[in-house]
Amino acid sequence: MKPSLFALTVALFSGHTFASNAINFDYVGAGYAKLKQDNFISHDGYTFEASKQFADSWVASAQYMSTSGKGTMSDIDEILEAKVLTNLHIDGEIDYWSIGGAYLFAQDDNSTIELAARFNRLNVDYNILETEQILSSGSYLIEADAPHHFNLNDHTNTYTLQTNYHYAFSESASVIAGIGYEYLKDAEQKHELFYQFGGNYNFAQNFTLSALYRNIDIYETYSVTLRYNF
């Protein structure tokens, strides 16, 4: 590594600090949200979020996300000598809300470690139309069942513990990276490790553009929000 490049690396990640406004826990925000559950269709919608820091190191926060989507899932089954194509035409909604608290460990003026605990709820409402198509009937002359409609309405509560690292590159730009554990009370897979990462950019006084991606294996969330800092 050339000496100049080494010096630049040290300058970026050493103890150099500045009075950063990029790491902020006092805001309200709204914007675009996307949620994808396991192998189901993706859902797009909107989200609202709020956060408040108090007593220097404590943070309370909340988020609500409402998404909807349409799509088709297909599967081929072999029944006797026949091959049957089953199509599920899905029109669904998923709502997600979360409340929690965190404790902050300030490393310096431009980095903070956040230990957080959250309670979350996923509400799922699917309207499904099932249709069948005989691809090959063999010698049994199997006929397709008539189309039928059914509704899937369910919810699960989840509990989250996570650690996030916030780092500010300047007075206006910061990143966040985190890992955690989530327990899903009413799901088949109850124990999930997850990760998340995102960034924030203060483009005007009191206004921040924020983006966050979160992967919990059986579902993923994406959000891009406009925040007002107070």
TrEMBL record:
It comes from the Bacteria. It comes from Pseudoalteromonas luteoviolacea S4060-1. Keywords: Signal. The keyword Signal applies. The keyword Signal applies. InterPro entries: OMP/PagP_B-barrel. This is Outer membrane protein beta-barrel domain-containing protein. SUPFAM superfamilies: OMPA-like. Residues 1-19 form the signal peptide.
